[in-house]
Design brief:
Length: 119
């Protein structure tokens, strides 16, 4: 399996002008144009623009990924905290229910204490 870059640039010539595109690899067969610029006089200018924009684009993506990672970590911490609170509440509920059942059984046993010798 070949390894290709997620983001890259392509340079195309249209008659007397050059155009540059920043592309994103969607799948092995498909790519999507993220940004494009037309009307460059030379290929060198188009390549220079594409490399500069690609660098800025990748920097912006890294920053966005870092922000998303921080938010994901916060969400996971809150979810763990909520799950722990739910588990504690469930344990307290089960303990209270078991205690109530034990008291009910003791009360039933006290009501039905018969002395068989007194009949």
């Amino acid at each position: 399996m070949t390894q290709q870059k997620k983001f890259d640039y392509q340079i195309k010539q249209d008659a007397n002008t050059w155009s540059a595109e920043i592309t994103r690899r969607v799948s092995a067969r498909r790519s999507n144009v993220s940004k494009q610029q037309d009307g460059f006089a030379t290929e060198a200018l188009a390549i220079e623009w594409a490399e500069k924009e690609l660098e800025g684009f990748l920097t912006k993506q890294k920053e966005a990924n870092a922000r998303k990672s921080e938010r994901r970590a916060e969400r996971n911490a809150q979810a763990e905290k909520a799950a722990a609170a739910k588990e504690a509440a469930n344990a307290a509920f089960l303990a209270k229910r078991e205690e109530a059942r034990a008291r009910a059984l003791e009360a039933d046993d006290a009501e039905f204490d018969y002395d068989y010798d007194e009949e």
